[in-house]
Design brief:
alpha/beta, Rossmann fold, Arc Repressor Mutant, subunit A, 26 helices, elongated, binds adenosine-5'-diphosphate, binds magnesium ion
Length: about 625
């Protein structure tokens, strides 16, 4: 298979001169019609691995991705490159979805982005068979794993596509989260025809991973950031704290701003742009910051609060050093963080009865009668919900997560849907209407001048922009749109910002609501294991940080030499090999006896002074302890 035509597409549309590691292999594998699982860390360039082959082949590439914001971002980018792409997601009306599908079938489009819960709907299935598909790309494929950290039940329905599309269409699954268990789940649940896995290393050799045990995180930050340079991200857990920390830095003469999902879109955009351009040095943010950021020279990512799994930590810290130059990933940790992590397990798993209460409250709140609701989409105002039933926010959120995990419904992040307009009369009839209704003539001309494509489908419009262009107030613009809509000239869907709840099953009676103890316990166990791995990472001071992370993703490696653990160990002037040999021997001896340091050194077949240095190191790091008689034992 020849890579040249793919490289030409890469250069022609994106202006890039060469592929990144593994992109080529994935593209060729897909082009050969093979089901392929591509594993690459975030920022590795996964999107191009389906975009490039799809551009070169006939037909439409179906892209399944769970985040609506990301979907819109990608469709927008493709359109701006002159590539025809469409999206179908839950915020859209049935009519819009219908038109979009028709366009995808007849309109010479290259990409159709779909959110997973749309795939199993009758509307989609009815038409999908008529799509001329080139490829099915499943982005964020880890969402299919029930034991993973971001399970979405509708992902389980993706394999169902296989029954009504040609079996020549390959599936390409992509993820940055590749624990061995998740990998198995992806292959199985997507019904891969072969075990074809392509992966790049997750080793980020230029990142120094550091864990700092500091009681006063604020003064640590100020001190460190005054001493060092470069741009960075500080992740904190709460919105309130983003502001507090940014203010603290600011007060100490350090350029910083804050960012979280509660700010207006305009504000978030301007903050992000100013950070990306280097005007703001540091951004203090919740984990809402990250999607779609493209900044290569991030010198450090500091976590003020510990994330609840390695996947998230790896992904967030991995935003450092994309340019390949030395960078730092720092985790601040205190003993109280450890108990907070433990607490999070309790909060994450409300008692089963409580979960059922919340299910019933939700159904009442959304006015879903028993036996109804399947495939319905509801706007969901979480704040109104918890205040109406006086529910605790975090517990409620987690109960909803649990119900989602059980497959009763899904809920999406808050999304911003712009207003949309579609002319439902042809140009001739519109002209007649304009002649007969002079009052609307100016407004219709304004619309037609400002946007194109409104005769064939819904087009996003911006009332503010129309208001600025025409000098009329926003309300006047709105009134025009409503009026034209009631006269059946256009369809107008006013924009809104909301979260959605999508019922995947009909509402069940309380006693029929199955939350099987097995699943409950199993999911909790897996969750606890994930949290413990994260805590281990923070607490351990004997294993190379980089090794711990890679090990989690099932990758073997040598110790990095630049994390805090390795740096301390370097001071011993022992090779890793020697150190590990001596460590293993000490462990073995101490498992059956308790010699003192001199005796231990005498027993082992290593140079005495080296053994003493390793013992000292282990004592310093609380791995072994010494009793009053100076006898040693392993500290477990
Ligand atoms: P992922 O999905 O793996 O997190 P993306 O597909 O979003 O990563 O790509 C991350 C960035 O890398 C994007 O800005 C993209 O344009 C850029 N990129 C991808 N492939 C290449 C390439 N071959 N050459 C240069 N830049 C690339
Ligand atoms: Mg991606």
């Amino acid at each position: 298979m020849n890579i040249d035509k793919y490289r030409q597409a890469l250069t022609r549309y994106w202006g890039f001169t060469s592929f990144r590691p593994l992109q080529e292999e994935i593209i060729l594998s897909v082009a050969a019609g093979r089901d392929t699982l591509g594993l690459m860390p975030t920022g590795g360039g996964k999107s191009l691995t389906f975009q490039v082959p799809a551009l070169v082949s006939d037909g439409v590439c179906l892209v399944i991705t769970p985040l609506i914001a990301l979907m819109k971002d990608q469709v927008g980018k493709l359109n701006s490159l002159g590539i025809k792409a469409l999206a179908i997601h839950s915020g859209m009306s049935g009519e819009e979805i219908d038109i979009t599908l028709e366009n995808a079938i007849y309109g010479d489009y290259k990409f159709l982005y779909v959110s997973p819960e749309r795939i199993a709907t009758r509307l989609f299935q009815g038409k999908a068979g008529r799509l001329n598909l080139s490829l099915v790309a499943v982005d964020e494929a880890h969402c299919i794993s029930q034991w993973g950290y971001d399970f979405r039940p509708s992902y389980l329905k993706i394999a169902g596509l296989r029954s009504y599309i040609s079996d020549k269409v390959p599936f390409l699954a992509l993820t940055a989260s590749a624990t061995p268990q998740v990998v198995d789940d992806i292959l199985g649940k997507l019904e891969f025809r072969e075990k074809n896995i392509l992966r790049t290393s997750f080793d980020r050799k230029n990142i120094s991973y550091l864990v700092r045990r500091v009681e006063d995180k604020g003064s640590y930050l100020v001190k460190t950031l005054l001493r060092t340079g470069g741009s960075g991200i500080i992740y904190v857990r709460s919105r309130k704290r983003t502001r507090e920390v940014a203010e603290l830095l600011h007060a100490n003469g350090i350029s910083a701003d804050y960012y979280h999902a509660g700010l207006s879109d305009e504000l978030r955009d301007s903050k992000q742009v100013s950070w990306t351009s280097g005007e703001t040095r540091i951004i203090v943010a919740t984990n809402a910051f990250g999607m779609g950021i493209d900044k290569a020279d991030v010198r450090f990512v500091i976590h003020w609060d510990i994330p609840d799994c390695i996947e998230n930590y790896f992904q967030e810290s991995g935003r450092a050093g994309r340019d390949g130059k030395p960078a730092f990933a720092v985790l601040l940790f205190t003993d109280s963080d450890k108990s907070r992590l433990e607490d999070s397990v309790r909060k994450k798993f409300p008692p089963v009865d409580r979960i059922k209460d919340i299910y019933e409250a939700l159904c009442t709140f959304l006015q879903v009668p028993l036996g109804a609701g399947k495939d319905s989409v509801f706007d969901f105002d979480m704040a109104a919900f918890v205040s109406k039933y006086r529910l605790p926010v975090i517990e409620t959120y987690n109960a909803l997560q649990f119900l989602q995990r059980e497959g009763y419904f899904e809920f999406t992040e808050e999304i911003n849907n712009p207003s949309r307009v579609h002319f439902i009369v042809g140009r001739d009839d519109l002209y007649k209407f304009q002649v007969a209704n002079e009052a609307f003539d100016g407004f219709i001309k304004l619309l037609l001048r400002s946007y194109s494509g409104m005769f064939s489908g819904f087009v996003p419009v911006n009332e503010d922009l129309l208001s600025r262009k025409s000098g009329a107030s926003r309300d006047t613009i709105y009134q025009y749109l409503v009026k034209l809509s009631s006269m059946d000239i256009i369809r107008y869907i006013p924009g809104k910002k909301s979260a959605l709840v999508i019922f995947t099953e009909e509402r069940l009676e309380r006693k029929a609501l199955m939350i099987s103890p097995d699943t409950y316990l199993n999911v909790r166990e897996k969750y606890v294991a994930r949290v413990e791995k994260m805590a281990d990472y923070a607490v351990s001071d004997t294993r190379c940080r980089s090794l711990m992370l890679l090990d989690y993703f099932g990758e073997a490696s040598d110790r990095c030499g630049i994390c805090d653990v390795c740096r301390k160990r370097n001071e011993l002037e022992l090779s890793k090999y020697e150190f590990d040999l001596i460590l293993d021997d000490i462990k073995e001896v101490l498992s059956t006896s308790n010699p003192d340091a001199e005796e231990l050194a005498a027993i082992l077949r290593h140079p005495g002074e080296k053994v003493i240095r390793v013992i000292q190191w282990l004592l310093d790091h609380n791995k072994i302890k010494q009793d009053q008689d100076r006898r040693l034992s392993w500290n477990s």
